[in-house]
Design goal:
two-stranded antiparallel ribbon, 5 helices, Rossmann fold, 9-stranded mixed beta sheet, 11 strands, 214 residues
């Protein structure tokens, strides 16, 4: 394998879907939020992405069967919004800048082919105090203001590293609209509470109420 490879499981049937990305990172907030969205929507896997820029390990299940790290794409036809949801095992090394650009570009090509024109990335932002908050950065002042009015705080810290930020920047260069939602977390360990807070905020902002017991 010398370049990213998509394995299509089935063709999704979606109408103007929103692309939502949640990957491992600070507190695993993005990955947790994506998992909750998949569960909430009853989303079904339709494609996988493998890449030589992923870290050099395999995942082994309880039966001793190994597989390469991958990104997974899920399709969710919904009454109010259809979704393409992407999550996965890892990200390229932060030192491999070219790999990040190439991989994000390949993903945008793929989701645009499936009708996505609005991008939402989800991640975590580390803070020192224990305070639950959702920050927003967007491709336009209008979108930033819209989600601020729905309860988010404008993110003005300067940088969003990894695919969480880069995907949004590359989307803007393609004239796609989108935003990044960042949940506050106090550490690098898995923070399910922060992931749930971002997921709940996103669903409410899009007109879907979520029960606490999800």
């Amino acid at each position: 394998m010398d370049k990213p490879y998509f394995h299509q499981i089935l063709p999704p049937v979606l109408e103007n879907p929103i692309f939502v990305q949640g990957l491992p990172g600070f507190g695993n907030v993005g990955k947790i939020a994506a998992y909750l969205l998949i569960k909430f929507c009853g989303a079904k896997p339709f494609a996988e992405l493998y890449s030589p820029s992923f870290l050099d390990y395999v995942s082994v299940n309880s039966n001793g069967i190994c597989r390469l790290p991958r990104y997974e794409f899920y399709a969710a036809p919904m009454e109010k919004n259809d979704f393409v949801i992407m999550t996965g095992d890892t990200q390229p090394s932060l030192d491999d800048v070219v790999a990040h650009y190439e991989l994000c570009s390949e993903i945008l090509d793929f989701v645009e082919k499936h009708g996505c024109s609005f991008i939402i990335t989800i991640g975590g932002v580390p803070i020192s105090e224990n305070k639950t908050q959702v920050y927003v950065a967007a491709t336009s002042p209008r979108l930033a203001t819209e989600f601020m009015e729905k309860g988010a705080v404008i993110y003005s810290k300067g940088q969003i590293v990894g695919a969480t930020g880069l995907m949004l920047g590359l989307a803007k260069e393609r004239s796609l609209e989108g935003l990044c939602l960042l949940g506050t977390t106090t550490g690098f360990s898995t923070d399910r509470g922060a992931g749930f807070s971002v997921f709940k905020f996103l669903m409410k902002a899009l007109g879907n109420e979520v029960k606490e017991g999800l």
